Amino acid sequence: MTTILQPDHVTIPGVSEPAKSRATRRVRGLSDRAIAWLFVAPTIALLLAINIFPLVWMIRLSFTSLNLSMSYLPLRFVGLDNFTDILTDEDVWFRLQTTAQFVISSVALQVVIGFGLALLINRQFRGHSFWTTMILLPMMLSPAVVGNFWTLLFQPQIGPFNYLISLFTGVPPSSFSMTGEVALAPWTIVLVDTWMWAPYVMLICLAGLRSIPDYIYEAAEVDRASAWRQFWSITLPMTVPFLMLAVLFRAIENFKMFDMVNLLTSGGPGSTTELVSITLKRAAFEKWRTGYSSALAIILFVTVFGAANIYVKVLNKVKQR
Amino acid sequence: MSGSAIANGGLMRWFRRGPWEAGATILIGVGIVMLVQPFSLDLYSYSFVTILAGTLGYVIVSHFPE
């Protein structure tokens, strides 16, 4: 038999009996729904304060000409002018193309390397767990840490990366700078991003590979299908939804990429590696064009939100499998 | 079958989530391509409106019945 403890039998020092019974009555009067709301309310309040309010404020600012370096000027409503400026500005257009090139190259490399690693890790071999942990290590680091230590590795004078390249090619190590040359800098950020995030793609692909039932391969063996045929007819088609998931997730993340690129190249040399997130930061905190940068932020937000909808759609398809 | 049931059936046939969601998804995808393509500034200029239409459309049609 279950014993229910009655809290009103507990004497609380310093609280008078009528006050206590009034409080107990009030708590007992609340429905389950009200109590649930009571618990959720602080989180909702926090969410409203740090997410929703800034978003609404940003939407409001995007229709104004606010410039924080001249904040003494009255706030002027300019309608859609900021959006028109951005969407007819060739510089922003070029920065979006740079971002797209970065997203496409890094995601393509990550998928190829991540899928290859997943195929390797999916086999049982000696030291399997150790190598899995080692491969996953870069993903666990903070982008700020990664940006800083790769900057050190890429140092033309003391960085080991240039010495390694010199060992294979014979080019003097101090004769080139990975982050300082127009031809190399875009590949530098792609290389570091791939190093960091290919393990993540590997994890998703591994989940896909492990979800394929063994009996399908056994049936293929009975039909004397070659390993190559099994890969093209079983492994790849059954991993495609997981690959799509990885591609979409990494594409959205790379579209927003800021910290690592800012630490590695700061958008340079010139504007070779200036992703749109760096353009946004420069407009907001170097030129102090708050209205303009709010409008740009909204364009990026809507783009990411749209892409996230596609991501959720694919995720639901994967779940249905 | 009553008239309203037929009308409801007709509406249900038109407002099924699947095709509308697929349409909105395609619109978002086309908008993103327009935003980052290197060929035409005009396409870039209309990209945001396309993405916005697709995204808002997606939010609306995701409430349609299956």
Can you walk me through this structure?
The complex is a heterodimer of chains A (321) and B (66). Chain A contains 13 helices and no strands. Chain A is mainly alpha-helical. Mean pLDDT of chain A is 88; it is low at 1-9. Chain B has 66 residues and is an all-alpha fold.
Task: Walk me through the topology.
The complex is a heterodimer of chains A (321) and B (66).
Chain A: H1 17-29, H2 32-61, H3 81-87, H4 90-121, H5 128-140, H6 143-153, H7 160-169, H8 185-210, H9 214-222, H10 227-255, H11 259-264, H12 276-285, H13 290-320
Chain B: H1 3-14, H2 17-36, H3 41-61
Helix pairs in contact in B: 2-3
Helix/strand-derived class of chain B? mainly alpha
Shape of chain A: globular
Quaternary arrangement of the chains shown?
heterodimer
C-alpha Rg of chain B, in Å?
16 Å
Mean pLDDT, all residues of chain B: 86
Order of helix and strand elements from N to C terminus of chain B:
HHH
Low-confidence parts of chain B lasting 5 or more residues at pLDDT below 50?
none
Number of E-type strands of chain B: 0
| Apparent shape of chain B | elongated
Major protein interface: A-B, 18 and 22 residues
Q: How many H/I helical runs of chain A?
A: 13
Q: Average pLDDT value of chain A? A: 88
Could you name the ranges of chain A where pLDDT drops below 50 across 5 or more consecutive residues? 1-9
Largest sheet of chain A: none
Tell me the distance between the termini of chain B: 22 Å
Using brief descriptors, characterize the structure shown.
heterodimer, A: 321 residues, mainly alpha, 13 helices, B: 66 residues, 3 helices, elongated
Task: Describe, in short, the structure shown.
The complex is a heterodimer of chains A (321) and B (66). With 321 residues, chain A is mostly helical. Chain A has helices spanning 17-29, 32-61, 81-87, 90-121, 128-140, 143-153, 160-169, 185-210, 214-222, 227-255, 259-264, 276-285, 290-320.
